[in-house]
Amino acid sequence: MPHDEAPLPLSAADLTALIGVLARITGLIMAGGIDAEDSAGFLRRAIKDGLVEEGGGNEDLTRALEALIDRARVALGEYR
User: Which of 13, 20, 44, 75 has the lowest tally of Cβ within 10 angstroms?
Assistant: First the structure.
């Protein structure tokens, strides 16, 4: 099914919640507040999903998460 025909599209409230969760995770990774195993799991997933290149590290992950947050803000109409 094409993306624009999703039966349950994200609402503005959904996007706002996701932005908050992603921002919190990003901050925790930057501050070392997530244990190494969990941080590595987030990194592996980001690599698998194409957000971070193979061999990337936590700095690459936080940049990718920040970019994802920015794209979500654009989707909300906060950025033009």
Answer: 13
Instruction: Calculate ∠ Cα 13-19-23, nearest 5°.
Output: 150
Whether the pLDDT of residue 1 is over 60: the answer is: no
Work out the angle at residue 31's Cα, subtended by the Cα atoms of residues 55 and 57, and round it to the nearest 5 degrees.
0
User: What span, in angstroms and rounded, lies between the C-alpha atoms of 77 and 80?
Assistant: 7
Please state, in angstroms and rounded to a whole number, the distance separating the CA atoms of residues 69 and 63: 10
Where exactly are the structural domains of the chain? 35-80
- Express each pLDDT in 11-66 by its tens digit: 999 999 999 999 999 999 999 999 999 999 999 999 999 999 999 999 999 999 99
Q: How many beta carbons lie within 10 A of that of residue 24, not counting itself?
A: 11
Which region, left, alpha or beta, applies to residue 33 given φ > 0 means left and ψ of -120 to 50 means alpha? alpha
